[in-house]
Amino acid sequence: MDKLSITGGAQLRGRLRVSGAKNAALPILAGTLLTDEPVTISNAPHLHDVTTMLELLGCLGAQVAVDEKLNVEVTAKNLTELLAPYELVKTMRASFLVLGPLVAKYGAAEVSLPGGCAIGSRPVDQHLKGLEALGAAVEVKDGYVKARAANGLVGAEVYMDLVTVGGTENLMMAACLAKGTTRLHNCACEPEIVDLGNFLATLGADISGYGTPTIEIHGVSKMSGGQHRIMPDRIEAGTYLIAAAATGGSIKLVDVDARTLGALLEKLQQAGAQITVGDDWVELDMHGARPIAVDIETSPYPGFPTDMQAQFMALNSIAQGTSTIRENIFENRFMHVQEMNRLGANIELHGHSMAVVHGVDELRAAPVMATDLRASSSLVIAALAAQGTTTIDRIYHIDRGYETIEEKLQQIGGAVQRVS
Ligand code: UD1
Prior knowledge:
Helix content: 25-40%
Strand order of the largest sheet: 22-23-1-24
Strand content: 15-25%
Largest sheet: 4 strands, mixed
Bound molecules: uridine-diphosphate-N-acetylglucosamine
Number of helices: 14
Mean pLDDT: 95
Low-confidence stretches: none
Shape: elongated
Radius of gyration: 21 Å
Oligomer: single chain
């Protein structure tokens, strides 16, 4: 099993291109199921999760081709299967996003329940409640969700009980082909939702309000083919910004949209970073200084993203002062704490949702283990800031979300090697 070997202590410096966003690519690839015509997706990141989604589309009978520029062309005509098997859904929760498009277009689908997950129970009740509101008969049996709408979905008012990114995406896609008007209320407003909305509009959906809490969709009878470029990955971008800040370095990221990074950039400034932004770039300079501890609290967009909580904790662990970190989205998202403490951090947990981080002068290398995707990247940041050589085990988690992480870090001066 691959490991990362990281010798810390060097300030990260240089320029990096940000990859396409995993969390936009996955729903958009699921959305290709809404049309018979070819759809071309560019800037999809080369990641394990994206390969899993392409495999799932292939299992359903879609034609999937990747050209020499890594553009993905999907033609989802004459599907042979309307079933997403457990083997694929269990490895990636986002596989559940094929449910909405399949029921909307084919009137039936069977998708395995995603089940438990390392960072919390993560139910799908809001996805199902919304589909029922659109007229689907939904049954949960033998670990599978079976949804039927033989005469098609029908537009409705849908109120989500909580803000869910995946729920909003599944229902946006389902409503595109429903008869009449759907209004989705209490929607997630994440930039990835906006990217999905733009993609659906390109395919001929009559959709507005995405990026706000209320999305209105007038169903169309058929959607067309088209081309779409995936937005830059704000979580990858944020991870490299925090890594540079934790090492006292400076970095310029290109192919990034600074507007999607607002809450993080503000916290990085409070931590002492000088931030400069342009149309498609962001620059961070710590001028060699040790970061200052900053309190953070996660919340739905435009609040501080839960997907950047662990990485910011790594920064706070070597910062000057004490900070609190409150996790409000997932109930079990502090698994990195134990591993960071092995590196010499001083972090106390108060229940499931609050951590108090006492900044230490120095972290020291130790063998550690990656537990989930973003926790893994937080350990990479801590190792880059630590004295000595740290080995991080189980890095397959990192490969789900970070394209060629060791090459990118080497490019900015990180002493990082993949070892088996
Ligand atoms: C997406 C992101 C993930 C990010 C998360 C929150 C993708 C592929 N993944 O995950 O990286 O961490 O948003 O920003 O885009 N919930 C329910 N019922 C539901 C649905 C969700 O109770 O039907 C709860 C979840 O358990 C969780 C919270 O709502 O506590 C947020 O989940 P959600 O926004 O749906 O996350 P995902 O779409 O799974």
